[in-house]
Amino acid sequence: MATLPSTRIYEGTRIPSPVPTILEVDPEKHRLEDILRVNFGPNHPSTHGVLRLVVDLDGETVAGIRAIIGYLHTGFEKNMEHKSWWKSVTYAPRIDYVSFHANELLYVLAIEKLLEIEVPRRATWARMALAELNRIHSHLVWLGTSALELGAISLFWYCFDDRDQILDLFEMAGGTRMHTRYVQVGGIAEDLPPDFTREARKFCDAMPKSVDEYEAILDRNAIWLERTVGVGLLSADDALALAQSGPMLRSTGVDWDLRRDMPYLAYDEVDFDVPVYGGGDVYDRYRVHMDEMRESVRIVRQCLDRLDETDGEPWIADDRKVVLPPRHELHTSMESLIHHFKIVTEGFTVPEGEVYVAIESPRGENGCYLVSDGGARPWRVKFRAPSFAALQATATIVQGLLIADLIAAGGSLDPVMGDADR
Amino acid sequence: MKRELPLVSDRPLAKAGLQSERVLWPERGPGVFEREVEEMEDALLLTTVEKAVAWAQSNSVWPDTFGLACCAIEMMSIVSSRYDIARFGMERFSSSPRQADLLIVSGRVTHKMAPPLRQVYDQMLEPKWVIAMGACASSGGMFNNYTILQGVDKIVPVDIHVPGCPPRPEALMEGIVRLHEKIRGGVPPAYEIRGVAE
Amino acid sequence: MSSYAAVPGVVETRESFGETTLVVDPARLVEACTALRDEHGFNFLSDIAAADYLGWGEQDVAGYIGTAGGRDIHMPGSQGLARVPDPKPKRFSVSYHLLRVSDDPVRLRVQAWLDDGESLESLIPVWPAADWFEREAYDMLGIRFEGHANLVRILMPEDWEGHPLRKDYPLGGEPVRFSDED
Known about the structure:
The complex is a heterotrimer of chains A (422), B (198) and C (182).
Chain A: E1 22-23, E2 35-40, E3 52-58, E4 61-68, H1 76-81, H2 85-88, H3 100-115, H4 121-150, H5 154-174, E5 183-184, E6 187-188, H6 196-218, H7 222-228, H8 236-241, H9 247-250, H10 258-261, H11 282-309, H12 334-345, E7 353-361, E8 364-372, E9 380-384, H13 386-392, H14 394-397, H15 403-412, H16 417-421
Antiparallel strand pairs in A: 1-4, 2-3, 3-4, 5-6, 7-8, 8-9
Helix pairs in contact in A: 3-4, 4-5, 4-11, 4-15, 5-6, 6-11
Chain B: H1 12-15, H2 32-44, H3 48-59, E1 63-64, H4 70-79, E2 102-106, H5 114-123, E3 129-133, H6 134-139, E4 160-162, H7 169-185, H8 190-193
Parallel strand pairs in B: 1-2, 2-3, 3-4
Helix pairs in contact in B: 3-7, 4-7
Chain C: E1 10-16, E2 19-24, H1 29-38, E3 44-52, E4 92-100, E5 106-114, E6 119-121, H2 130-141, E7 144-146
Parallel strand pairs in C: 2-5, 6-7
Antiparallel strand pairs in C: 1-2, 3-4, 4-5
């Protein structure tokens, strides 16, 4: 990681005080009689889900803001405490529903850390390939919806068309477009179908051209530049103080990516670059997203090569206490039958302990704090949601913005409310 | 193989321009759908004016952007070019409930979100329809807990439930097409039939 | 790691699964975290995770196997808990997951234990990111943070009663009815 740059973006800190997440109207800058309090209610056209912003406007300038979340609080953590380990994995992808594979992967990695189980190589490469495809999917959804909000409406259709191709690949591997529940404790649920690498390579060949197209539309578009350059500024020190991660942090000049700096899966065995831009505005976040899409395609290509090399190898671990034995063994081996029975009825047990595992989801650091008491159900699951942390920065980045810029800045945080509210 | 079905041009609805995807099903040849809708209409004794109004309504149902969770992503993808909902005249998603006809509740509804949902529903003008998209909106889905409303039909009357977690775009389109058939057939919207929450 | 011995307020250091946990005295939490931030370079607060240990070690098995005489969970190979876990010092634990974003990245967990009714000092002066995480811990588990200027519910509606993630709070929901039942 490179050293931190100086805070050139703005001097000092812009984090409001005493409450960092509430921007109060400054009576010296605005006449209080002029303030109009507007409610961006939970249901609004900006397609980032059920986020409520209460905005104090002085004319068209944002003078005060507070974000109110909780409209999608689903009680994942409590539900997962009541289900066996196997069943609780089903809940995980629905948390951050745009990068569903990342959530599943995170939770299963946490369970595997407690179990200290070894995952076969083929499963690791498959998980990585799908994780990077999921990253491209998430960035495409972000780009499509953010551009839609700022007026580049046609980009929505272009991005979603590419996204449908990625979902075809997920459907090929996992059986369904979203929430595939393909990651299993010990590996992956089923082997990848034989044509997967071929179809995925076709996609990898087509994707960089699509990214070129999107950049051709937006990169030097006068309207896009006007609406995004210099909007939503966040300095590196403020970003770290507010626990920003992912593209938010990399757009402020901090060169930090969990895949490279604290590698998980097999990210230390592939080549990729981490895009970092120092402007701290919405335009730089956009650039980070676009470059990350290209880098993900690179990673996917390398994973596909390794998948071809490991063709025929096991895709799930051998540990019969945790992983179901193959069905043909049930006819011949009594132990396999007993293991199968025990795993399917009670579920496997995970040793006592607590772990914190973090991965680089498309939104930033997605973490899972898992406590097990040695039983068949989780004791406590806590997800560290990147969107939750990103929304804390709302009050800092909207200072001095006009109301239309608020949409651009809010979109650049890339919040997914399922993730923020859990 | 000789087809025994009557000609499509004999059907008055076909003359009005009615076309349905189901006409393309192999076991449902041309004319079957029209006959079904006609039977529905005869059962409800619709007048020609009502039929014309119903035809017009069903061909331009404007949905409201009520995307909540994962189902919203699949709802967005029916707008995309592969599953194109503009074929049915529905590409104009309206953020203002005053201008919307259809509320597609896509995603899990929490107790905190229920009052805004009801408020948006109340702000819509009659006639209005509701599709509960996905398992969570239909019945609470996999979340049977303290915070999720177990089915959005507790607070708004629902016309069509679309199962799935999330339902494929094609599944949602099936739900939408059935809603169109309901409208075309003269079936009243759910608030007139259900006792729940007029 | 021995380099954490100098951090004020540390009661115990644990290493497990490759992770280091520093258990600190709740009264000296801010002191400890300030020292970690300033002297050890932990500039990133990843997460504040609170957990309720009511009923620890008494949990039943989620399965369907049993004998008429009950089940002795201390017997090896029996279903359920592999062994009864050691009891926890107090009811709630609040774990602060710290990260040093630098060329020498390190993760650390700082843990404080409390009983119901006790409170911790807010860490907003140390890391402003603690704001919403503390509100969530208050909302979900009822742990109060002194000095937090806006400790109101964040995920549940403002007028909700009870703290959902506590072990004595029911899961809620409705009993599922099937169509062939009367």
